[in-house]
Amino acid sequence: MKKIFTLFFLLIVSIASYSQATLCSGFGFMGGIDGTTYTRTTTFGTRNYQYISAANDGSQFYAASFTSNKLYWVSTSFAITDSMNVTLYDIASSNEANTLFGLTQSSMYRINTSSKSITDTIAIANPFRLEERPGAKEVWVSGDSMIYVVDYTSGLTKSSIHISNNAGDYYNVRFTKGGTLAYKIAAASKKIFKIDASTKAKLDSADLANANGYDIEVSTDSSKIFVSMPNDKKIMIYQASNMALVDSIVSPREVFSLYRHPSRKELWAVNHFQDSITVYDEDTKAMIAAIPAASSPFHLAFAKGNVSVEHVTLNTYGLVAYPNPASNELFLKFPNGNTHKIVVSDIKGQILSTRSETNNRSIIQTDNLVPGSYQLSVYEDGTLKSTIRFLKQ
Fold first, then answer.
1. According to CATH, what is the number of the domain 309-392?
2. pLDDT tens digits for 61-114?
3. CATH number for the 19-305 domain, one of 3.40.50.300, 2.130.10.10, 3.40.50.720, 3.40.50.1980?
């Protein structure tokens, strides 16, 4: 069980932790995950649930199965609550309430999730994946060598962006958090493209090492592009500003789908053949957690809303400490490379260890601590900057 906290200065008034419902698709059953503690809490269902999405307000999930020809309603406590008869090959929730978009083999449906009815449809040739543009009434559909942009301001209208002359370039599009830029993976052409989401113009591109690329995701701060390479067991990292390949993450498992966490700087990678999910820190590339998932998962959906609320006062000193609870080590990341004094105390205030650190990162060994609650204090130039509580499990 692991948790990341970002802490800001001296006095912590209170910390309230919330379970974050996270759903993963699966062949045979779905997996319910607590996104705060990185644990699978349940598996449920008896059908193949290939595609999932969360409602725009995070109040529930949807799961589509083309083998049972149904769309299911799933609660955040991981129970199937309703269904309708419809065959869909991908789904995405809308920026509007009570609206879901779904692909058939030759069209896209607009579904009213309150009345459980199809309210609109538009023909699309060979659609493969769909992604809603944040902050806009647009759904971007990847199909063959095209991106079809469906505007749903009034009814459904369609325009297109020509990507390549290769029909195999049908993989995902992902957006920056604000929806100003889009990135498209074109694995058959061994390319990734940067697109101005407003003008629909291609701005730049980068070469892939091979045609093994599967999925693409944008970092929380929009500075990096992640591309999964399943056969290589890697996630390639590109600099968004110039599209240069700058780094990679070596995975212990084959990496397929990638997802940006909605409120933390985390990259969640779906390991389809290993029935698991690995979570990485976007900045350090460190693996935060490995989570058993569903049977052959491909897709993830996060319930939005509060997942970790920290009430703090004064200033903006930033300290990252994880995992919490800790087993053998507690990793620290400081906001600067100044000299820091790190003090670990028990809950009675008795000092257990003191050390200095001149880098912006440190590791506290916790394997010699008995299970329980501890306090970690960070001083800079003799001034107390932050005090946190952590658990030793």
1. 2.60.40.3080
2. 999 999 999 999 999 999 999 999 999 999 999 888 899 999 999 999 999 999
3. 2.130.10.10
